[in-house]
Amino acid sequence: MFTGEEFVRTLTELGVTHVVAVPDSTLGLWEEALRASDDLELIRVCREGEAWGVAAGLYLGGASPVVMIQCTGMFESGDALRNVLYDYRMPLFAIIGYRSYLSQESLPGDTATEFTEPILKAWGIDYRLIDAPEKTPLLGEHYQACRAAEKPGVVLIAEGQA
Amino acid sequence: MSGPDRIPLTGALDALRAVRTDEVVVTVMGAARDWVAGELHPLDWVYVPSSMGQGTSIGLGIALARPDRKVIVVNGDGSQLMNLGSLVTLTAAGPHNLTVVLYDNGVYEVTGAQATPAAADMRADGRDLDYAEIARACGFTSVHTFEDLAAWQAGVRDVIDEPGPTFVLLRVIGSPTAGGPRPPAVRGPDRVSPFRSALSGRV
Fold first, then answer.
1. If I label B107, which of A31, B99, B122, B147 is the partner at 20 to 30 A Cα–Cα?
2. Is the ipTM of this complex over 0.95?
3. pLDDT tens column, A61-95
4. pTM for the whole structure
5. Set of chain B residues whose Cβ sits within 8 Å of the Cβ of A89
6. Domains along the sequence of chain A with CATH
């Protein structure tokens, strides 16, 4: 959907300061551009639950982080997410890789596609899906809308071969 | 876990409070329980309610956002085990302004003092794991262990003033009847903005 340079440029224009991330085979393609950026700091964590905690600390310190993980990592990190988004009402934003979304017909059977959106709905998180290149502006639009409303938000990045 | 060479947690926290000036202090679980018994500082992040294990991650985030501020995370051994990888994340980022103070009592104290998997009682080899060794293996080069309150009282200021990341292991006495932490009187969401303001110097 994005090249690394496009992704970095978009986040930089939005005023994002830190990307707290665990890579997957799609999100990881942006890593070189993220590491090369003078405007964004990439913070690589060992497991996705950490990402929410680190992002919360960055937010408490006045920074503007985003969390970037795969949907499987969102599943893993539910309690950390719950704590910062609900116990403390921190308006954190996440970019979440939607594993196998684009290959559901050619490579069926990945249950990640069954649970990703229902879980986001269960958490009450406002999300948008980017599943085609023409939808990439949704990232900036939804980020800005969530910032203005001071609420959490997610953009799902469809993954897999179409 | 108890013994003549171990430190009472309340005494350890009193020693920290006695030398604390304008550092951010993040407390969790038993430390949060005992920290709120004293007068709170605007730069206290009493992490209750918590997602267990996230104290070190939150402290790392604050330290990276505010490299001009010293951040001290007072973490329990059970909490650290929930997020052991955070020690690797922390040394990878390498903030010079972060100190992790791990108080090891060998148990999940707030749930009734069940032994952790790192405690001798739960281990096939009958030996406690040494968190100082774990910290070194995770990349900390500044590591200290205290088993005596007087030594901690004498050394706490110097340890905090060291360029970090620093890891401090306090072997403490368990308090199995002390109960769990209670959240501060101000609800979590209402503590976020004042803390951010205090950290930015807007108070």
1. B99
2. yes
3. 999 999 999 999 999 999 999 999 999 999 999 99
4. 0.96
5. 188-189, 192
6. 4-88+97-158 (3.40.50.970)
